[in-house]
Request: fold
Amino acid sequence: MDKVKTAFQNFGRVIVDPILYLSVTGIILAIATVCSLGSGVVADLGTLLSAATNSAVIGNLPVIFAVGLTAGFAKKQKSNAAVFGLISYLMFLYVNNAYLTLTDQLAKAGAMGLYGTGQATVLGLQVTDVNVFGGVLIGCFCGWLYNKLIDVKVSDYIRIYGGPRLALLAMIPLSIVFGIGATVVWPPIANAISNASSFIAASGGLGVFIYGFLNRVLVPLGMHHFMWMPFDYSAIGGTAVVAGQSVSGAANIFYAELPHIADGSLTTVDPSVRFAMFGFGKEFVTLGTVLAMIATSRPENRKAVAAMLVPIYITAMLSGITEPLDFMILFASPILWVAYSLFYGLGEMLLFVLGVRLLNMYGGIELLTLSLPLPMGVTKFPIYIVLGIVFAAVSFVVLAMVIKKLNLMTPGRSAEWSAEVSGDANALESSGTPEVDAKQQEMVQNIIDGLGGKDNINTMGCCMTRLRVEVKDPNKVNEEIIKKAIDKGLFKNGTNVQIIVGTNVHSVYDLLRPILNLED
Reply:
C-alpha cells in the first residue's frame, strides 16, 4: 500500500509542470478570442493566437503529457527522456493507425465527424480515441522503462545502443503491443468512463459537491490531481460537439466554446464547466480563512500575522497557488482542514445550482481574462461575485468559531509565535552578501542532514510548494534538524518525504541540486 501511495504522490509531483503551462495557454486564448471579434489585422492576430494555443496546445494534450511525464519521471538525462517519450508516443499512434487500416477497422466520419465512433484524429492520424489517458499512460510507462534501462551496462562494442537507445529498442516491440492492444482493451474502458461520467452528471449538485470537496481535501496527499485533471481534460468530465468537432473534458469544451460565446453565436455554456470552477474557493474561501486567522490571533501578533497571510492570500487569489495556506490549516487541525474543504465543495455546488457557467481553475487572473469579457447573461458573473462575498463572510464566521472553540494554534495564537517565525524568510532569499550565503549554506546542510545525509537521498524533486524526496532509510530522517532549516511542515509516508517550503521551493531546490548532483 505504501508503494501505491508513493506512486500516486510521485505522479502528482510530475504532472504539475505540464499542467501549469495550461494556465498560461488559457489566458492567451482569452486574448485571442477578444481579438477575433475585431477586424483586419486584429482579427488575424486572434486567429494566429488561437492556433498557437487552442489548436497547438489544447488540441495536443496527449503528446504533451506523454513527453512531460516521461521527462518528469526520469532520474537522469531528462532531455533524452523527453525525446524517448515523444518517439514512443508517435510509434503508438502509427502502429495503432496501421493496425486499424490493415484490419479494415477505420471508422467512417459522419455528420459530426468521428464523434461516437470511438476513434479520433491525432496529429493527422485516425486512431483509437484514448484521448489524454493515452498520453498519460504512455508517459508513466516510458518514465518507468527509461529508469529501468538507463544504467544498464553494455559492451563497449555496442555502447551506442546503451542507455536511452536501449530503452527505445525495448519500446519498439512494446509499441506494437500497445498499438494493437488499444483497439481491444480501450473500448470497454471508454464505455466504463462514459457510464461514470453519466452517473456524476446525473447526480447534479451532489456530484459537484463531492467532486469539489475531494478535490480540496486530497491536496496534502498530492492526489487531488486525480480528481480534477481527468474531469477537465478527458471524457470523464463530459463530451460535446462544438462547431462540428467532438471535444472531451470540461476545460477543453469551454475553450472550444469560448469564441462562439464571445461572438453571440452560442448563448449557453455546456454544463460540464461545473468541474472547472474550483478557483471560486481560492478567491473567497481563502479570504474568509485568512481573515479568521488574523481575527483570532493574539492582539500583539495581529499585524505580523496579517503581514504574513495577506501576501499568501493575494498569491492564492490571483494565481490559484494555495498550498502555503493549505498546510497552515492542516497543521493547525485536521478538523479545520475538513471544514475548509467542505466550503470548497459547497461553493462549487451552489455555483452550479444557481446557473453560473464560467471557467476558473487557476485563480483571478484566469477568471478576469476568460470569463469577465463574456456576456454576463451567459456566465451569470454577478451571481458569482455575490455568492463569493457571502462565502467569504460565512467561512470567516464559521472557521473563526472553530479556531476559538477548539483552541487551535493557527498563526499568532501562541505567545511564542513571533519568536518562532522570525528570521526564517531571510535564509531563503539571496542578495549576494556573505551573510545570506552563510544562511543558505546552513539551511541546505540542515535539510540534507535531516534527510539522513546525501547517501540516504535516493531521489529529489519539487512541485509548486514542496520538496518531494525518496529516501533509502526513513528511520534516518530527523524532523527536528529539518525544522531548523524550514519549519513549515513535513509529511512522511514510508520512504517518501515531503518538506513544505512554499512558493519559493524552486529556489531552495536549485540550491540543493548541485550539491546532491541532481540533473535538470
